[in-house]
Amino acid sequence: MFDKIQQAYDILSRPDADGELVRDALETYGLDTEVTTISTDEGSTDFVKTVVPGADPDAPTLGVVGRLGGVAARPAELGPVSDADGAIVALAVALHLGEMRARGDVLAGDVRIATHVCPDAPTSPHDPVPFMGSPVDTRTMNEHEVDEEMDAVVSVDATKGNRVHCERGFAITPTVKEGWVLKVSDSLLDIQERATGRPPSTLTLTMQDITPYGNDVHHINSILQPATATDAPVVGVATTSVSPVPGCGTGANYLTDLLDATGFVVETAKDFTRGRASFYDEAEYDRLTSLYGSMGRLQTLGEGV
Question: Which residues contact 282 (CB under 8 A, 6 or more apart)?
Answer without folding.
Answer: none
